[in-house]
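User: Working on a comparison across species. This one is ABC transporter ATP-binding protein/permease from Paenibacillus soyae. Can you predict its structure so I can line it up against the others?
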Amino acid sequence: MTRNPSAVRVLLGALRDQWRSTLQAASIGRRLLAPLLIRHWRAHAGLLVLVFVEIALTLVTAWLMGAMTDAAVGKRFEELLGMIPWAVGIVALNIAAGYIGIHLQLRASDRLMRDMREQLLRHILLLPPRYTDQSRAGTLLTHFNQDIYGIEGMIGSNLIQILRFPIIFAAVLIYMAQIHWALAVVSIAAAPLVAVVGGTFGLLLKRNSRATYDQVERMNVFLSEIIHGLSVIRSFTLEKQSYDRYTAQSERLYGLALQETRLRGIYSAFGQVAGSGIFLFSLCFGAYLVSTAQITVGSMVAFLNLTGHLIYPLTGMAGLWIGFQNSIPALERLAAVLDQPTESTRLSEYTPSEAHGLPVRFEDVCFGYDDEHRVIHHIGLHIEAGQTVAIVGPSGAGKSTLFALLQGLYRPQYGEITVGNIPIDRLSPAELRSSIAVVSQDTFLFAGTIRDNLLLARPGVTEAEMVAAARAASLHDFIMEQPEGYETKVGERGIGLSGGQRQRIAIVRAILKDAPILLLDEATSALDSETEHEVQQALEQLQLGRTTIVIAHRLSTVIHADRIIVMQEGRIVEAGRHDELVQQSGPYQRLLQRQLIEQSTSA
Ligand SMILES: Nc1ncnc2c1ncn2[C@@H]1O[C@H](COP(=O)(O)OP(=O)(O)OP(=O)(O)O)[C@@H](O)[C@H]1O
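Assistant: Here's the predicted structure for ABC transporter ATP-binding protein/permease from Paenibacillus soyae:
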């Protein structure tokens, strides 16, 4: 026989889960935030000192108001006048404390967030491509423009409030009890109710804020896809569909914001009702105590003044809980990135390599992007320093994957890759990648001038070297035809330049990088035949003395290679010089025949 669990048990279970997840979040918070809090301990210590100043000012203000009222009621005007400078002094101190508090809050909170931003970018730059490949640009941007601001509920003055509120509450309660203990007890009667209601709202808001973060991320991802895929959207006339999808998402976000405002509004109204109720109750009870001469009018004024200071730590603690719960999803999202292991501990910088050519070896390398699907099988490939090896094979054979492995972007599950007879695992990413120049099919251009885009190849490139390289890649004349020459701006993703021009920029970068190993991925594919001929000559010049691996789809470009490797389904199925391979009736010959047929039909 099955029995339904009682409502109490369900509630207890939910509370236990909630408590566990809060403890878990607190431990993530401690791990991620503690080093930053320690770094900015001075500002946090200053905020803590201000808490005690504030308490002292609160109690002295209440006492002074009571004393001034009693002096006025007792017609002791001289005494009253004597207290005015004290009152002015307290107001001035309050203003000064407020100003210093804002300043310290800025230092504690904004500097901490600045550090967190920098730490996040540093971490993302150090992450292996395996992680960044899977994360979409919009997701990564969300960490910066949303998640970092989300942790505000756990740092700066919000953190200090955790100490401030209980201390203020205790100090005020003790002072009130001293005036009249029964009145003080009556005043805190509503405390448990405020705590329960505040706790419930905290949980509701946490659920809402988690949904909000996810929704913002979804929208950022979608927006970045729309912006980068505008040309596809236009060519497939997807404008209306994209707009409708975005507005639906935007509407969902608005709904969540509305829900949050509603929850906060209800909670704030509850706080006000509770505060006013306690005030009114204290007023009536206080008036009764005054009428029965148990306390003075001044004591009642002091008491009523303190009532407000008793309520706001209570509602404030609940507010802190709410803010803390709101921050948890943001913190968890940041932890998901910051907990990923990095591929090195130092940000890479260009490391010059003395060698002119370096031998490259793949020793029985096996690799899959995930553990289930292997895409490279037992590759053994020895390339002597200064040799040119061409890799050919059908799409998906694993040619680009070999490039990625050689650059250390992924680690083989089995086997070893060496560069200059050193396993690449023992080289830092900076050493390895500084010794390799890559010209790929997709050239990314940064927003800036053509000069900026060329000079990033290597620090210390001279003007003469840049112009010579641009000439060698047949790009100089084109640049000089532009209104601002080398200072011409290229758009965010190189908009405004043709595929061939972008490819030549990549070639100039490779020339300028002057690395001992050259990886060319169909480097001349986007060029017309005349420019291709010129660039091909520049590339041949560039290859002299360098170890070069070329991925080529058009076999005409690989005829002069020292060795041709034919790949199929992640395996080397044939290897040799062009004249040797054409003699064999193997895969290379079949590829060649297919291309000849394609060329004759397209002609
Ligand atoms: N980032 C990736 N994540 C998962 N699988 C990938 C990734 N990149 C490539 N692959 C898979 O690895 C296999 C080899 O791809 P690769 O890009 O190396 O082939 P290729 O020979 O260079 O093809 P092409 O000539 O079309 O560029 C393919 O099955 C492909 O689907």
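For your comparison, note: The first helix runs from residue 7 to 39.

User: Helpful, thanks.
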